[in-house]
Design a protein that fits this description.
about 90 residues, AhpD-like
């Protein structure tokens, strides 16, 4: 499932709430200035509490921040890190 999500979350067998969360994460990552109250309301309609939305936003934003720091400083990946398509699927 993790590999399916990493490859293309749109094609992964996700529940509607998880699809909504992935759509929110994608939008927050690629076009953060376009997040609106409607995006938050969509998550609420899928059962996410304000606390869960806050926590998800913190995690998504943190990973975006760390990736931008690493990219900006041209940080090399550790030798044991391989692209998803080269790694062994989780079981």
């Amino acid at each position: 499932m993790v590999h399916q999500i990493a490859k293309d979350w749109h094609a992964a067998a996700l529940t509607p709430p998880n699809q909504a969360l992935c759509a929110y994460a994608e939008k927050l990552t690629h076009t953060p200035a376009q997040i609106t109250d409607a995006d938050i309301e969509t998550l609420r309609q899928h059962g996410f509490t304000d606390r869960a939305i806050h926590d998800a936003t913190q995690v998504i934003s943190y990973f975006n921040y760390i990736n931008r720091i690493a990219d900006g400083l041209d940080v090399a990946l550790e030798q044991f890190v391989h692209p998803w398509e080269q790694s062994v699927p989780f079981r």
